[in-house]
């Protein structure tokens, strides 16, 4: 697995240590990987929402949600 060095705030470091110390995670790497998975999911959800809704929050175009979701899933599979 590639190794990356990042700078985080003391509060973030304390939160990671607390998550490991309380037994929620086996290592700080697990905490960071989970955080990145959640961030990636939120980012993809926002992209999907942008595809589905117009600027006023109403469904965009005349397409049904099922078609838009199918397009989103197809794009996700192509990107994987």
TrEMBL record:
Record has Manganese as a keyword: no
- InterPro entries hit by this protein: ParD, ParD_sf, Ribbon_hlx_hlx
- Which CDD domains does the annotation name? RHH_NikR_HicB-like
Q: Which domain of life is it from?
A: Bacteria
UniProt-recorded name of the protein: Type II toxin-antitoxin system ParD family antitoxin
Alphabetically sorted, this entry's keywords are:
Toxin-antitoxin system
Question: To which species is this protein native?
Answer: Rhizobium redzepovicii
Q: Which Pfam families match?
A: ParD_antitoxin
């Amino acid at each position: 697995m590639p190794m990356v060095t990042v700078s985080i705030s003391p509060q973030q470091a304390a939160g990671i240590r607390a998550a490991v110390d309380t037994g929620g995670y086996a290592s700080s790497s697990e905490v960071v990987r989970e955080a990145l998975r959640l961030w990636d999911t939120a980012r993809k959800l926002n992209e999907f929402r942008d595809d589905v809704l117009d600027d006023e929050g109403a469904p965009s175009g005349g397409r049904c949600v099922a078609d838009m979701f199918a397009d989103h899933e197809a794009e996700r599979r192509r990107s994987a």
